[in-house]
Amino acid sequence: MSRKIKVQWGSGLVELTWKTQVPMPPMEKITSVHGCCFDQGKVLLVHIKGRGFTFPGGHIEAGETPEEAFHREVLEEGSVRGSASRIGMIEVSHENNPEFDSKGKYPLIGYQVFYRMDIEEVFPFIRNNESTCRIWVEPAEIPYVIDDHELALEAFKEAVKADLNTIV
């Protein structure tokens, strides 16, 4: 399954494609990891400075796998731990972006990998990274609270229907 949209990122137009049931891309093409985290029927959102309320996630550090990075980011931004499985990814294409910098830190075509997490531990929230707060939201409220593009909602829909025992 895939769905494409075009979004304005900075001064350039970028094409985003939501993809499920596809192999993991090469590590050098993965630009970030994100995820939908569930606890007792509610969804964790974090408020990131400059971005608003969103799903926790971020960049992969040297020596980390994407899943390790996701677990670290969720702990840093949301102060939670749990079991996670990959649900899909957003392909980010700058092929038609005249502002693309081929010498910049992002590849011409990159990927944001998404996970579903079932939270097992909740710790006191600490504002020691870029997140200023966390909130627990009813699933039906996500479209009204999240400050992101519509493919984030596609990822959320995939996370809702995902069964951790059958995810590829």
From TrEMBL:
Q: Which PROSITE patterns match?
A: NUDIX
Residue span, Nudix hydrolase domain: 28-159
> Which domain of life, per UniProt?
Bacteria
Q: Which residues form a coiled coil?
A: none
Q: Which CDD domains match?
A: NUDIX_Hydrolase (cd02883)
Q: Has keyword Hydrolase? A: yes
Does the record bear Oxidoreductase in its keywords?
no
- Keywords in alphabetical order: Hydrolase
SUPFAM superfamilies xrefs: Nudix
Q: Which GO terms describe its molecular function?
A: hydrolase activity
A Pfam family the protein falls into: NUDIX
- Cross-referenced InterPro entries, in alphabetical order? Nudix_hydrolase (IPR020476), NUDIX_hydrolase-like_dom_sf (IPR015797), NUDIX_hydrolase_dom (IPR000086)
Family under the similarity heading: Belongs to the Nudix hydrolase family.
Q: What's the protein here called?
A: NUDIX domain-containing protein
Source species of the chain: Rossellomorea vietnamensis
